[in-house]
Amino acid sequence: MAMTDTPVNNGVNVDALVGAREALGSAPEAAQFQWRANCTWVNGTHSSSTVEGFFGLGEEQHHRTTFTFDADHPEIFASEDHGATPVEYVLVGLASCLTAGVAAVAQYRGIQLNSVSATLEGEMDVQGILGVDPDVRNGFSGIKVTYNIDADASPDDIKALVAQSQKRSAVYDIVTNPTNVTVEVA
Amino acid sequence: MAMTDTPVNNGVNVDALVGAREALGSAPEAAQFQWRANCTWVNGTHSSSTVEGFFGLGEEQHHRTTFTFDADHPEIFASEDHGATPVEYVLVGLASCLTAGVAAVAQYRGIQLNSVSATLEGEMDVQGILGVDPDVRNGFSGIKVTYNIDADASPDDIKALVAQSQKRSAVYDIVTNPTNVTVEVA
Question: What share of chain A is helix, strand, coil (3-state, %, to 5)?
């Protein structure tokens, strides 16, 4: 970790993360997590999802509160726009994962962050989801993430922060690599 | 479309979707969409993302309002739990995409839905994100989606609804297949 005259404080408890890495390396069963969401259909393309419980460190865990998310399609798709679209939720997940990673890596490397913002753009040919052209995929053809970072570090060190965040990001991995999804009706 | 004595109403405007499919098939440039999110780092692993504008049908579009999403890591990761975790946002996106699809396909097939709910479980070995074991991926090892659907249809027809929703789902495609993500520092 770099030493600086003024203690760097990005609000990330690096000692705890390093401790967790050591603890979980010697107790790999505690590292098995299950993240969950529950979704209830409201009407049309509008649904309401909640996030509250998860499993990890060998036992049931709970968020401090239940987080609720309305999703819908926009009015130009003849829907009522009661919430962000499902694909926008994926962009939020990617943005927040990479940004948390930037803060954590910066703390670890002794780099003080002053401000971090990101713009995400996901390109999609909706001929896929509409079934117009079977050669067009349903999802994004690609996603571009652009960071603006003000930090007490050189441009190269800032680029290296972002690169390391990508390397350790759960959502970046989920989006860029295939994940098996099984869907069942109870 | 199936004919029934009582008009089926799941709140989905199928005529508009069929019209869009025909219109976009003859004007493929209008089908080029760009979905966006903006993310601002708050402190530690806490960030705030907004969703408002997007591009489609050849012009800038706007949601009816700006949707704002706080994301954070939970307290067991030495964070302050100011919002759902980034990977939970991906589960919300997947849940809401498949559920909107179930409603749309049911409407198209003349099946009245009474209730639809889904539970999503994403398994993750956090030795990946912590960098304990380079052979463990950062993302989910797999996701299980379980639907409970009450509809005026046979169990087989309900299973077929869900299968067709998977086939047309943008987020299911994003999660199960690789997507290119470029990350730049401005």
Answer: 35, 35, 30
